[in-house]
């Protein structure tokens, strides 16, 4: 799509083109997406939206079944159904006429079928890949995922304490803008002044960015005000700024692990975001630390994260166009060297075919 003639104000008004939305979904399809917390998937089916389509999840004997949320028979929503036992095996039963689907989407019961007839293979539903990791359920809509779910070593390490930050409401932005906004550090003095930055010192740090496997690694040193976000104890207001080594690991394209190292103490802010659709992201956050380990302190970390998230939300939701505009459009004006990490992320998105239009 040619956009040279568009002015920035027109772009503010417009939603993305059909081609841009289709390209975004197509580009993200071959990746693992977090769709819900593992604890949310109990003994009932659960409907979720992913990349603009409705899916249903069910736990069947320890295996996770993920299907399009549409019955093979007359297209009722399977997530309105229930999990039943058929021949000693768990299956997902449609609420409308009782057709039931077992492991792999195989149709295991058609109550209306004449006694002599076998269930036709055409009654089966194609199942998506699904797995549980880092306390979340992940789904990939394609048979082969381009990248595995990124590792999260601190989450698996008993020396660390993890706090899940629940966001009841989705964020009205694209998943890629959500990750880019979390990778962005030059906004710290402006949006998080007094917590993560200081407006009197807005100079960007010296970033190093590189690729390692499926991760974009961004590293820099900075100083931040003394607070629980910099592992300071006691009366933080009386203390000098703290030196922080940041290492951001972006698990391309929808996971970010921001590691803050402060003199042996480590705080990790982790985000996996679900692209519900092109303009809606459901965020799954974890705050993980290896200091101040008393569980009674979790609420303080949760409140700090929620406060920072609330500062970011209206800004990220205000960005237009909804989808990160590809470089060729020249809609954005990234400023090197400060915006280097964002440019590297965007460059990789374009290589993966995720950011293709406006
Ligand atoms: S629509 Fe599902 S059983 Fe008829
Ligand atoms: Fe922020």
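^ structure tokens above, recovered residues below v
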């Amino acid at each position: 799509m040619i956009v040279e003639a568009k002015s920035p104000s027109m772009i503010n008004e417009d939603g993305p083109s059909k081609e841009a939305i289709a390209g975004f979904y197509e580009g993200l399809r071959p990746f693992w997406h977090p769709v819900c917390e593992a604890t949310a998937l109990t003994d009932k089916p659960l409907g979720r939206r992913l990349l603009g389509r409705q899916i249903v999840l069910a736990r069947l004997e320890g295996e996770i079944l993920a299907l399009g949320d549409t019955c093979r028979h007359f297209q009722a929503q399977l997530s309105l159904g229930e999990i039943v036992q058929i021949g000693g095996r768990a299956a997902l039963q449609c609420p409308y006429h009782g057709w039931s689907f077992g492991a792999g989407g195989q149709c295991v019961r058609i109550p209306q079928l004449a006694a002599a007839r076998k269930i036709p293979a055409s009654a089966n539903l194609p199942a998506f890949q699904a797995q549980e990791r880092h306390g979340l359920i992940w789904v990939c809509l394609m048979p082969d995922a381009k990248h595995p779910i990124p590792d999260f070593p601190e989450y698996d390490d008993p020396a660390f304490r993890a706090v899940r930050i629940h966001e009841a409401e989705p964020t009205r932005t694209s998943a890629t803008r959500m990750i880019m906004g979390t990778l962005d550090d030059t906004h710290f003095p402006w949006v998080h002044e007094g917590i993560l930055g200081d407006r009197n010192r807005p100079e960007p740090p010296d970033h190093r960015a590189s690729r390692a496997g499926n991760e974009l690694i961004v590293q820099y040193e900075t100083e931040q005000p003394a607070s629980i976000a910099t592992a300071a104890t006691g009366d933080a207001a009386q203390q000098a700024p703290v030196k922080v080594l940041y290492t951001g690991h972006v698990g391309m394209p929808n996971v970010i692990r921001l590691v803050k190292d402060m003199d042996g103490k480590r705080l990790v802010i982790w985000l996996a975001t679900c692209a519900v659709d092109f303009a809606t992201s459901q965020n799954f956050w974890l705050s993980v630390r290896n200091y101040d380990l008393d569980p009674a302190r979790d609420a303080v970390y949760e409140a700090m994260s929620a406060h920072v998230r609330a500062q970011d939300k209206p800004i990220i939701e205000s960005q237009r166009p909804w989808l990160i505009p590809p470089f060729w459009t020249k809609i954005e004006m990234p400023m090197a060297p400060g915006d280097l990490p964002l440019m590297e992320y965007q460059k990789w998105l374009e290589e993966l075919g995720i950011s293709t239009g406006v």
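Residues 71, 73-74, 76, 94, 96-99 surround FE2/S2 (inorganic) cluster (ligand 1) (CB under 6 Å).
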